[in-house]
Amino acid sequence: MSSTSPVRLRALVPLLLITFALSACDDKSPAEEKAPPSAVKVETVRVQPLAITTELNGRILAPRTAEVRARVAGVVLKRVYREGSDIKQGDVLFRIDPAPFQADFDSARASLARAEATLFQARLQDQRYRELIGINAISRQEHDNARAAFLQADADVAAAKAALERAKLNLGYATVTAPISGRIGRALVTEGALVGQNETTPLATIQQLDPIHADVTQSTRELNALRRALRAGELQQVGQDQASATLIQDDGTPYPLPGKLLFSDISVDPSTGQITLRSEFPNPDLDLLPGSFIRVRLEQAVKQLGISVPQRAILRDSAGNPKVMLVDAEQRISERSVVLGSVQEDRWIVSDGLAPGDRVVVEGLQHISAGDQVEVDNAGKDALPIVQSNGQ
C-alpha cells in the first residue's frame, strides 16, 4: 500500500490545478462580467420646409399628333420622306398621280374662259338694250330678257371660278405634305397603292416629341385631403407656374431634365374616381417616347414646419403602428409612437410624435431595446436630413 501512494498523489495534482483555475474564474467581479453598451447612430430632429411630393403613375403622350391622310383618290407614285426621320411642316411626304387632277384643272379653266366670253356678250347686249329702251325702240320684255341673260352669265362666271379653285385644290392635294413638324413613323402604304377611294386613307403618323407630355392620375381622395390641409393652413400652395415635376425612369433613376405641371383636369373619371394631371418635360434627345408607362413625382405643396426621419428609423409594433427609438440625455433608450405622413424619397414625413431636438436612432436598432444604456457614435456630428426643401 505504501509503495503505491506517491503514484496516486501524482495523479491527483492535475485535478487540483483545474479546480483552482475554475474557482479563480468564479471570483470575477460583476463589473467585469457586464457587457459594454451598444453603439448607435442618431439623427437630431430639425424643423425645416419640406416639399410635399406625390409619385403618380401615368403614360407619355405626344403634345401634337397628326395622322397624314389622302385627301383625294389616286395611285401613290412615290414616298418622298425617310421613315423615322424628323420633318418640318410643309415637307413633301407622298406624291399621288396628278394626271387626272391636272385634266380636271384644265377643264375647269376652259369652262371659266367660256363663261367669261358669254358674260362679255351678255354685257354688251344689256348695254345696247338699255340705250334702245330709252327711245322706245324695243319692248320692255326684250330689255328684261337681256338683263336676265347678263346676270345669269355673271353667275356662271362665279361658278366656273369656284370649280377652277376646287380643281386647283385637288391638284395640290396630289402632293401630300406634313401638317406639323415632328418625327414621322413608318409608311402605311407603298407605291402603287390606290388611296382615298371612298375614304380618307391614312398614309403615316407624325408626332411632336420635344417637349413631351406626361399624363398621370391621382385619386380624388388624395386630392381632397391635400385641399383640406391647404385650407387649414397646414400646407402652403405651390404656384402653378412654380410647381415642379420629376419623371422616374424604368430603372428607378430620375430623368435628368426637370419638368413642370401644366394643369389638372376639371372632371373626374367616373369609372376610376381619379383626375388627370398633365406635366411637360424637355425631350431634346428623344429618350421619352409616346405610350411609355412612367411615374412622375409632383411637388404639390410645401410644409413650412416639417419634420422627417429616415425610413430605416421607423419600427412597427405588433399591431403595425409606427414607432421610433429615442436617446435621452442620460444615453438611455426610450420608445415613442409617431404619426407618419407621406414618403419623400428615402424619408418619412412625421405628422405627430416628434419635436425639434429629439435624437432618433437611425443605426444599431437591432441591438437595443427600451431602457438600454447606449453609446452614441456619430463621428462627431449628427446626420443631416436629406430632404428637398422648397423644391430645391
TrEMBL record:
GO molecular function list: transmembrane transporter activity
Secretion signal span: 1-24
Domain Multidrug resistance protein MdtA-like alpha-helical hairpin per the UniProt entry, residue ranges: 106-174
GO cellular component, one term: plasma membrane
Record flagged with keyword Coiled coil: yes
Residues of the Multidrug resistance protein MdtA-like C-terminal permuted SH3 domain: 307-366
Matches recorded under Gene3D superfamilies: 2.40.30.170, 2.40.420.20, 2.40.50.100, Helix hairpin bin
Location(s) in or outside the cell: Cell inner membrane
Domain Multidrug resistance protein MdtA-like beta-barrel, first and last residues per copy: 211-300
Keywords: Coiled coil, Signal, Transport
UniProt key word DNA damage: no
Pfam families from the UniProt entry: Beta-barrel_RND (PF25944), BSH_RND (PF25917), HH_MFP_RND (PF25876), RND-MFP_C (PF25967)
All copies of domain Multidrug resistance protein MdtA-like barrel-sandwich hybrid, residue ranges: 64-207
GO biological process, one term: response to antibiotic
Main location group: membrane
Record membrane topology: Lipid-anchor
PANTHER family: ACRA/E-RELATED COMPONENT OF DRUG EFFLUX TRANSPORTER, MULTIDRUG EFFLUX PUMP SUBUNIT ACRA-RELATED
Family of this protein: Belongs to the membrane fusion protein (MFP) (TC 8.A.1) family.
Name this protein carries in UniProt: Multidrug efflux pump subunit AcrA
Gene name of the record: acrA
